[in-house]
């Protein structure tokens, strides 16, 4: 009797252990699945993932070798707001870091991704950056607008560490939020151009005349980028197609953050679906991840005529190439290379660089910070027009030229007035003709 | 000896995992039993680490190095230790709080929402008073008191729902957690939004003088540390040394019997909610005044749920709150190094914590069964 009882206890325990193990295995498999999906991606990505693997395998080794030759290796730290393999903003930044490692022998990247309070509860970005210092990082790159407060706090607390805050304006002397921190610098690409090109591609493709913009959170940056898409779309609509601007519908729906955080932001998948279900046939994405493109692909598979334009990362088109019109993307490598070189050589100084694409070839991976990769779904005719538009931009076309009214009708630029950098960077509202919230309500 | 067979209407933490008469039994065998218990708990700990190691191996990572990294990340430098203590404080408050509700036989799942409401009311008072000429220290004290009250009232709401509405506190608490999150999001995107911004990243940070003073160059505030420790001592004395604590436990062990013996049961249940909510609210207040200096959607940082896990892990014995919460905090902070050094997900600390709780409960269950059997045999 006691024997059978204890056997039962044993069996029960074993069962629970097996259950827990199964759960754990499932979790582990989930992880490895994620890995395989990135390695399975075709084209240029497969090389980058193999590089990623290479760095991750060497990471373990270098901790031991670093002890022998610590002075030779220059470690730079990067903080990403999303997962390093998000096929969007964070991945573009991650690959910028890889570019530095590749082109500047003797440097090593350490990074922490998912640096946001939902993914890493209880932490702050300053704290995460300090964790990188613990791994011998000699400079820190904060690569998200969301890290503005954290980057400033960190730079103030560590005046000896060069700090690069991508997309911020704390180091802009002529900006609104200038903080006099000698170790803080900013870099940003003039993505307004990339977005305008996206707008052109969208306007040339839409059959319903309704373009949706899947917006992230609302701030200066996101307003001006959404506005840039609209300006490009309106330009193509009126100049190339000769249509009435009143017939172009352009709506912005914001989700509340750079990417989906279940239970906190609006679900970008749903927002994209809503656009498509309401007759918007092109959705331009302003968020870090690729939901718009994925949903457009699903809709097209179900027989709808839908297209999408993702954002940030040159490799993102692979998620649904058959409906991708193209992607305006960041190519951070060259600028990060300059920054790390300066920091390593002790030439760090505070700067604010808001950089034009290389108009000779906006897709040159060694010179252009902003590019536009055309997608399969862009018709040959539209592609030619897109090239024409890029040539016009290179020739000096400036769509931020008056007359230009804000969404509520207030004049922003008088007739013929060309916007200053401040008038573009700190765009206070969306533009007249755009639907959607200019500020959070 | 059939008391454990009685059915309880609510999933009250009963029998196996509660310090019941089994512990109070024969003094002669006390030391031997203590050793056996300790051995069993150690076995559970070892098992939990083994289990996590298997997960690590499956993920292709070296378990030993992972544990070394966690340990280094938690204790390599003074900053690491201070960061651990920063996480320790809200964990202390949350776990001490849920011990009170556990004692009264209540599953206060709503503790997360109570932390959030504490943070919300603290933020509210700070915003209200920041432009006034009141001294900053007074503003902070008032804001934190508001936070305590906020958490207490939110918990009392769950208590009232249970007592007078017949809503099980688990469902009530879960519902109120959602409401608390929704409220926070509405405030952050609506009335309390940063000018020109609509982002979940939070409200405008408060000026430095409206935060609890921290150690130079660190994030740790000795004030919040002291508050956390005081809370644990308070709960320990309340539960182990006072008449009220005894009555609370009576309510938790057998509500009907307690009632028949003259204990005002629902009042005590409400009191337990109130105390727990107050401590949770204080945790929220500290998250705002000492950690984030603003309101963010994830202001509770999961400390409430972690506190519940700690409560279960330590079988509701207040004396163990401080060390176990410290261990959990160290795991959380130490595991930040995992993605950096080993490219592993930091949620591994969660796997370890979950495995630990499960296995300790399992071992304890097995032990109770064994005890019961030997007792019936003795009879």
Query: How far apart are the first and last residues' alpha carbons of chain B, in Å?
Result: 9 Å
Which pair of protein chains has the largest interface, and what are the residue counts? A-B, 60 and 61 residues
Total helices of chain A: the number is 12
| Envelope shape of chain A | globular
Q: How many separate domains of chain B?
A: 1
Question: Based on helices, strands and strand pairing, what is the structural class of chain A?
Answer: alpha/beta
Count of helical stretches of chain B: 15
Count the E strands of chain A: 15
Note the main sheet of chain A.
6 strands, parallel
Provide a quick synopsis of the model.
With 441 residues, chain A is α/β, with parallel strands linked by helices. Chain A is built from 12 helices and 15 strands.
Task: Describe, in plain words, how this protein is organized in 3D.
- The complex is a heterodimer of chains A (441) and B (379).
- With 441 residues, chain A is an alpha/beta fold.
- Chain A has helices spanning 2-40, 44-65, 89-103, 125-133, 148-157, 191-205, 220-240, 268-277, 291-301, 333-344, 380-394, 421-425; strands at 74-79, 107-112, 139-142, 163-166, 184-189, 210-215, 249-254, 282-285, 307-309, 326-330, 352-355, 370-374, 404-405, 411-413, 434-435.
- Chain A has a domain at 192-328 and 372-435: Response regulator (Rossmann fold, 3-Layer(aba) Sandwich), CATH 3.40.50.
- Chain A is built from twelve helices and 15 strands.
- In chain A, the strands form four sheets. Chain A has a six-stranded parallel sheet, sandwiched between helices. Chain A has a five-stranded parallel sheet with strand order 9-8-6-7-15, sandwiched between helices. A two-stranded antiparallel ribbon of chain A has the order 10-12.
- The longest helix of chain A is centred in the first third of the chain and has 39 residues, at 2-40.
- Chain A is globular.
- Chain B is an all-alpha fold.
- Chain B has one domain: ABC transporter involved in vitamin B12 uptake, BtuC (Orthogonal Bundle).
- In chain B, helix 2 packs antiparallel against helix 15.
- The longest helix of chain B has 31 residues, at 348-378.
- Chains A and B meet through helix 1, helix 2, strand 2 and helix 4 of A and helix 2, helix 4, helix 7, helix 14 and helix 15 of B.
């Amino acid at each position: 009797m006691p024997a059978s009882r204890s056997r039962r206890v044993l069996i029960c325990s074993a069962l629970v252990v097996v259950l827990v193990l199964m759960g754990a295995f499932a979790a582990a498999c989930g992880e490895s699945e994620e890995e395989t999906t990135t390695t399975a991606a075709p084209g240029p990505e497969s090389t980058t993932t193999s590089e990623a693997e290479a760095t991750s395998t060497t990471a373990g080794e270098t901790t031991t070798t670093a002890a022998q030759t610590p002075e030779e290796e220059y470690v730079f730290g990067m903080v990403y707001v999303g997962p390093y393999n998000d096929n969007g903003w964070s991945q573009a930044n991650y690959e910028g870091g890889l570019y530095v490692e590749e082109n500047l022998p003797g440097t090593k990247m350490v990074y922490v991704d998912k640096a946001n309070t939902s993914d890493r509860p209880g932490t702050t970005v300053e704290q995460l950056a300090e964790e990188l210092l613990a791994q011998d990082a000699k400079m820190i790159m904060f690569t998200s607008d969301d890290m503005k407060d954290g980057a400033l706090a960190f730079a103030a607390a560590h005046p000896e560490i060069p700090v690069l805050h991508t997309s911020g304006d704390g180091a802009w002397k002529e900006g609104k939020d200038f903080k006099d921190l000698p170790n803080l610098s900013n870099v940003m690409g003039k993505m307004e151009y990339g977005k305008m090109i996206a707008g052109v591609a969208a306007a040339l493709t839409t059959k319903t005349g309704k373009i949706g913009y899947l917006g992230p959170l609302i701030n200066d940056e996101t307003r001006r980028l959404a506005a840039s898409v609209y300006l490009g779309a309106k330009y193509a609509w009126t100049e190339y197609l000769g249509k009435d601007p009143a017939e172009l519908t352009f709506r912005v729906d914001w989700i509340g953050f750079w990417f989906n955080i279940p239970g906190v932001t609006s679900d970008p998948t749903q927002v994209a679906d809503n656009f498509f279900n309401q007759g918007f046939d092109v959705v331009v994405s302003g968020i870090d991840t690729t939901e718009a493109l994925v949903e457009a692909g699903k809709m097209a598979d179900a027989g709808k005529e839908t297209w999408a334009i993702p954002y940030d990362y040159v490799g993102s088109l692979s998620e649904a190439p058959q409906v991708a019109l193209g992607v305006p993307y960041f190519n951070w490598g060259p600028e990060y290379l300059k920054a790390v070189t300066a920091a390593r050589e002790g030439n760090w100084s505070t700067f604010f660089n808001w950089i034009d694409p290389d108009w000779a070839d906006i897709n040159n991976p060694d010179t252009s910070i902003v590019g536009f990769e055309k997608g399969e779904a862009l018709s040959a005719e539209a592609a030619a027009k897109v090239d024409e538009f890029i040539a016009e931009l290179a020739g000096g076309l400036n769509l931020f030229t008056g007359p230009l009214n804000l969404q509520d009708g207030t004049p922003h630029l008088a007739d013929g007035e060309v916007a200053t950098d401040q008038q573009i960077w700190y765009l206070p509202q969306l533009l007249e003709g755009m639907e959607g919230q200019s500020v959070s309500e | 000896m059939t008391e454990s067979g009685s059915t309880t209407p609510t999933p009250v933490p009963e029998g196996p995992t509660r310090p019941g008469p089994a512990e109070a039994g024969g003094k002669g065998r006390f030391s031997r039993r203590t050793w056996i218990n300790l051995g069993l708990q150690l076995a559970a700990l070892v098992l939990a680490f083994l289990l996590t190691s298997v997960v690590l191996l499956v993920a292709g990572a070296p378990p030993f190095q992972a544990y070394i990294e966690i340990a280094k990340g938690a204790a390599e430098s003074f900053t690491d230790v201070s960061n651990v203590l920063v996480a320790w404080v809200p964990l202390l408050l949350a776990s001490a709080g849920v011990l009170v509700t556990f004692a009264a036989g209540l599953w206060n799942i709503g503790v997360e929402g109570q932390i959030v409401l504490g943070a919300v009311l603290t933020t509210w008072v700070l915003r209200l008073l920041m432009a006034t000429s009141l001294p900053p220290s007074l503003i902070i004290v008032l804001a934190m008191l508001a936070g305590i009250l906020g958490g207490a009232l939110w918990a009392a709401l769950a208590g009232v729902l249970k007592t007078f509405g017949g809503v099980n506190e688990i469902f009530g608490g879960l519902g109120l957690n959602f409401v608390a999150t929704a409220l926070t999001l509405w405030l952050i995107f609506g009335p309390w939004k940063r000018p020109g911004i609509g982002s979940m990243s939070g409200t405008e940070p408060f000026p430095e003088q409206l935060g609890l003073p921290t150690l130079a160059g660190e994030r740790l505030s000795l004030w919040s540390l002291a508050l956390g420790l005081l809370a644990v001592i308070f709960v320990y004395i309340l539960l182990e040394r006072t008449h009220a604590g005894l009555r609370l436990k009576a309510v938790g062990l057998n509500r009907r019997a307690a009632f028949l013996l003259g204990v005002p049961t629902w009042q005590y249940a409400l009191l337990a909610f109130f105390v727990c909510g107050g401590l949770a609210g204080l945790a929220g207040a500290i998250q705002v005044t000492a950690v984030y200096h603003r309101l963010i959607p994830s202001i509770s940082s999961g400390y409430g749920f972690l506190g519940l896990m700690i409560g279960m892990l330590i079988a509701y014995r207040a004396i163990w709150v401080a060390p176990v919460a410290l261990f959990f905090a160290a795991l959380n902070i130490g595991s930040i190094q995992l993605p950096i050094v080993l490219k592993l997900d930091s949620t591994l600390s969660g796997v370890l914590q979950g495995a630990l709780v499960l296995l300790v409960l399992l071992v304890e269950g097995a032990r109770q069964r064994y005890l019961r059997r030997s007792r019936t045999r003795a009879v």
